[in-house]
Amino acid sequence: MDTTGLRERAEAWRKADPDPETQAELANVLAKQDWADLSDRFAQDLEFGTAGLRGVLGAGPNRMNRAVVRRTTAGLARYLKATVPDVTTRGVVVGRDARRLSKELAEDTAAVFVAEGIPAHVFPEPVPTPVTAFAVLHLNAAAAVMVTASHNPPEYNGYKVYWGNGAQIVPPQDVGIADAIAKVEPANAVPLLTPSEGRAKGLWRDLPEDVGNAYLRAILDLRLYRKGSDMLSIVYTAMHGVGGAWAALALKEAGFPRVTPVAEQQQPDGRFPTVRFPNPEEPGAMDLSLATAERVKADLVLANDPDADRLAVMARDASGKLRLLTGNEVGVLLGHYVLTQGTKRARPHVVTTIVSSTQLGEIARGLDAAYDEVLTGFKWIANRALERTAKEGTQFVFGYEEALGYTVGTATRDKDGVGAALVVADMAAWCEARGTTVLGYLEEIQRRFGLHVGAQRNVTLPGSEGARTIRAIMQAFRASPPANIGGFPVTAVRDYQKGEGGLPPSNVLAFALEGGGRVTLRPSGTEPKIKYYFEHKETPAPGEPLPQARQRAEAKLAALIDAFLALARDRGQPA
Length: 575
What we know:
The chain has 19 helices and 21 strands. By secondary structure, the protein is an alpha/beta fold. One of its GO terms (biological process) is purine ribonucleoside salvage. Residues 1-21 are annotated as: Disordered. Residues 499-538 form the Alpha-D-phosphohexomutase C-terminal domain.
């Protein structure tokens, strides 16, 4: 290791760092001569992943910090001025969640924009990510930045970029922005204006409550049944995030008076004191919600992640037990509900991702709707919807990804956990009026379109060494794809890195299995993980109790997972 060169790079970064805290942090690492730590901090510049930056807070170019955000914003501002002629008229929206350093990073973002002569429409308080996405369209802004790390652990933060169409950025915008960032001067030389200076010039514009009120009106219009329910008991958790007040108001306005918040998690708190991973998908994250629901005998549990762009749902089964629905199950429910109960459209269009269940496609074909599978990430869903509407006149009605992301209609061009919670409650009230439940409705769909069961396994491999291991696993499966997984013959191999399926190249592999199953693997774009997705399709026999068919399907799925993970270990995955 060239420790002399590494020290010189670290000293240069420290001197240019505008934040005294990260300056001191880096000085301490240098004093300890912790070369492994320094090497990781300077292994690379933090790169755009899923429409922006996300990383661990700390000093250095491979961390999230004020220096990185100032240089990133300067690059973004200059790219916008070069490519969007009216950006200095339309401006850019700046929102933030309630994580550690979010306020400072958002203020730095706005300060750089206004110094570049671009108006900054700034949310003065933390807001859900979908509210920022909504504001782009509502204000006709040229772009937006949302400072958030969504559902990541508390040591993370991030920087999400939206384009003027309301969707997250896609190529070539991300490449162009990255090139512009690379040309930016050291962070302490990036021009910026204080809030008072920006306001004096009329460029720093604090957004009024009217924008949030317009968002609430827009998502209330997404409801299909629109009658609410005095009987339905709902438990809601904000998971220590920013969705609490918004969801509570939306559900109240929609006619759901029996909503009980999970008190310990309702207020924003970037420390996330009751959960290690503030992601409803993680083991233990829903324990307090479940306990609250059992105490009040709730029919339904709705959970947002900290920036409220995702939604988890629990509902009672035929035995009265609360069950956590998978993202695919919620996606199938909402997709079918919108296609069958929504306003009849000439060409309704639904979209999901290549790692989500194939069942939405079966439903779309059965109901004569347009359907697409796109790469992982809601940016691809939103942009595909816009593309087909422009070219073919289709009308986008629903999109989802299995990682608990859903959007109904076009109020926002991103996943919206608050809007989705509202529509799930609306659907539950409709089910109640029909004399059934949410899970009863799901059974109706599964009897018609097949019983799809799925699961996901994530392997966390942090740091530069972990990144090398993930690359090696992907390469090993490419070089030697399996012919059989757990007794299921592989009928097709799809390597999306080659641009297969008409999609942009992406580091994803999929193995189609005999009988309709699928195994897909990819590195995460936002976390140091490799992700494996599994799906199995079972056809219930006529008159067969669905729990019996589900038990059989889940046993086959478990065998499939075990067999694949053994193959992954043979290809370099740590045990």
